[in-house]
Specification:
Two copies of one chain form a homodimer. The first copy, chain A, has about 210 residues and is an alpha/beta fold. In chain A, the strands form two sheets. In chain A, strands 3, 4, 5 and 6 form a four-stranded parallel β-sheet that branches. In chain A, strands 1-2 form a two-stranded parallel sheet. Chain A has eight helices and six strands. The interface of A and B includes residues 81 and 205 of A. Chains A, B: Pfam families: Flavodoxin_2. Chains A, B: This is N-ribosyldihydronicotinamide:quinone reductase 2.
């Protein structure tokens, strides 16, 4: 199997991101061309699933999966970009949470393979709390949590704690920013006592 | 200004993604260190805004912005990954739709800088239509369109046509897949006659 044969269907950029060429660094690749399951009909989902089972994912992914496996609580800290996480973090989700590791039908949602873990999305926004209120210009902040909290975490069986949101730190006073940090430090002290949210459409869209 | 001075606060990986070092290829960088607006206090939003105004964004971004500028209709075609677009496409949004080009407060939403353009999200899913129904396990497919259609496109002033969704092409018959392609070809013929959706929370969450 030669990696070149995949380029016409995947496009060279995409192929470079998914596949490490023999002898090349696999820094940004998902799996090595040495160990494709079916090189005649490339199926991204099947290939990552198979690669996971055979320990053929690239080293950085195996490393990240170990961290997830050992963790009881995953905290994702990021600046909100375009009503979502920045692409680099979405890439982590896309690459790390592969079938076999995080889910394997019918083991998804409440029986997802990462059940018994907790997650918390902690992020900063550009817009104010008023802009992210239900009648605000951006709509209720909960609307945009659905893909991240339900579509990713809940799908993998992970229970989700209330998000931690710092609204518009760039536009508030230094004093207010210090209060934000203190509030976060305070919350972390009793985080283990918190109950997960009720992950249902009602929580998000009521 | 030396790029190294930014690495402690940004982290080396992040710095590498944002800044092209002098003399290095700017393939994956957002702007060049040659032309930072304020290198003492790096602010991502401000730097990209300033770089846009001074024509200092990296060449590939300027190229993409030209394509957007010339287009009347933007069609985003992708496989749905984790209730959203794949990271590589989210990266396009994060990098291309910078302040000054796509929005510039208060020019956002209906007065966004890309007003008079249309967009359409056309994507394939893994799950079936039933799984993405309102009472289905994944919830109404419209829930996950909010960040992409409202948070990105509408924010930039772009009006959005009904999404084009091919449910689970991987799991249907070859005949059904051909029907899907035909339906898309058919829709494209009269796309210009379509009215945009009413981009309000009611459309998404009713």
């Amino acid at each position: 199997m030669h990696h070149q044969s995949l380029e016409p269907c995947l496009g060279p950029l995409f192929a470079r991101h998914i596949l490490a060429r023999n002898g090349e660094s696999s820094d940004h690749a998902l799996l090595s061309t040495d160990c494709l399951h079916n090189s005649d009909e490339f199926n991204y989902g099947v290939e990552t699933w198979e690669a996971y089972k055979r320990g053929c994912l690239s080293d950085d992914l195996i490393e990240e999966q170990k961290k997830v496996q050992e963790a009881n609580l995953l905290i994702f800290q990021f600046p909100l970009y375009w009503f979502s996480m920045p692409a680099i973090m979405k890439g982590w989700m896309d690459r790390v949470l592969v079938q076999g590791f995080a889910h394997e039908f019918p083991n998804c949602y409440d029986s997802g393979l990462l059940k018994n873990k907790l997650a918390l999305f902690s992020f900063t926004t550009g817009g104010s709390k008023e802009m992210y209120a239900k009648g605000g210009i951006n709509g209720d902040i909960r609307y945009l949590l659905w893909p991240m909290q339900h579509g990713i975490m809940h799908f993998c069986g992970v229970k989700v704690l209330e998000p931690h949101i710092c609204f518009a730190p760039e536009y508030v006073s230094e004093e207010k920013r210090k209060e934000m940090l203190l509030a976060w430090a305070q919350r972390l002290k009793t985080l283990w006592k918190e109950e997960p949210i009720n992950c249902s459409p009602e929580w998000y869209f009521k």
